[in-house]
């Protein structure tokens, strides 16, 4: 049977999450052990869990500090957090999972099922390296893109544009690279919109740093520096030109 370890500084939260998980009827036993960074590290060494539910804010540090202290992370990580927008965004950029307090049973079960399914995939230390980078306000954000074959860690200034195809998104990068990810463009728009990206049409999100020119023909389009041409929606025209003026 798989093991899930819950590390949180609130006894009630630890016990509640453990009770919920054990009631789901999944092939996993929940252990509520670890109330801070130091006791959490000891609990991981003792129980060798398959999944770790990890509180972000603890008395002696953060869940990020705990991860940094563990060299071999042979487990899936699900963060437990309140509405801490900066931390949540860093977690999403790093393609890691989280649940919000107060914990919703259905969201918790879905998170456990995702973690159990992900155990068959190869874990990649670069996700945690990207996380350490993304939680620092001084560092440039790095986006983790997971495909069926591998994990890619991409600097935002390497992304020229993104294009959607139903539930998939293609990333067009510098040096002619292309990465296809099984996530919607809307998910990436939510992450990237504050970093000089704009959705110029339903299927297209572009990096304004790579805009070469605007082409009036064919109803209006944006020509990117790699030569690609992206249609500009009439509804987005005014905001696009306003942003360009302020660059």
From TrEMBL:
Q: Does the keyword Phosphoprotein apply?
A: yes
**SMART domains, alphabetically?**
LytTR (SM00850), REC (SM00448)
| Entry GO MF terms | DNA binding; phosphorelay response regulator activity
Q: Which UniProt keywords apply?
A: Phosphoprotein
Read off the Pfam families from this record.
LytTR, Response_reg
List modified residues, type 4-aspartylphosphate.
55
Q: Which InterPro entries match?
A: CheY-like_superfamily (IPR011006), LytR-like (IPR046947), LytTR_DNA-bd_dom (IPR007492), Sig_transdc_resp-reg_receiver (IPR001789)
Identify the residues that the record assigns to the HTH LytTR-type domain, covering every copy: 143-246
Q: What is this protein called?
A: Response regulator transcription factor
């Amino acid at each position: 049977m798989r093991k899930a370890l819950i590390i949180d500084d609130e006894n009630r939260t630890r016990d509640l999450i453990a009770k919920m998980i054990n009631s789901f009827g999944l092939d996993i036993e929940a252990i509520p052990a670890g109330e801070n960074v130091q006791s959490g590290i000891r609990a991981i060494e003792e129980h060798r869990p398959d999944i770790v539910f990890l509180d972000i804010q603890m008395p002696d540090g953060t869940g990020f500090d705990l991860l940094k202290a563990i060299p071999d992370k042979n487990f899936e990580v699900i963060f437990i957090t309140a509405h801490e927008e900066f931390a949540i965004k860093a977690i999403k950029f790093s393609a890691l999972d989280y649940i919000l307090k107060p914990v919703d049973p259905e969201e918790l079960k879905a998170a456990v099922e995702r973690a159990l399914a992900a155990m068959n995939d190869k874990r990649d230390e670069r996700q945690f390296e990207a996380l350490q980078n993304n939680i620092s306000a001084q560092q440039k954000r790095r986006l983790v893109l997971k495909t069926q074959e591998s994990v890619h860690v991409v600097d935002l200034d390497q992304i020229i544009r993104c294009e959607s195809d139903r539930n998939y998104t293609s990333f067009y990068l510098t040096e002619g690279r292309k990465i296809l990810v099984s996530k919607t463009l809307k998910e990436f728009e939510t992450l990237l919109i504050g970093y000089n990206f704009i959705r110029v049409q339903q299927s297209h999100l572009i990096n304004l740093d790579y805009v070469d020119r605007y082409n009036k023909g064919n109803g209006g389009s944006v020509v990117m520096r790699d030569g690609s041409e992206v249609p500009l929606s009439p509804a987005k025209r005014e905001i696009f030109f306003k942003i360009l003026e302020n660059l």
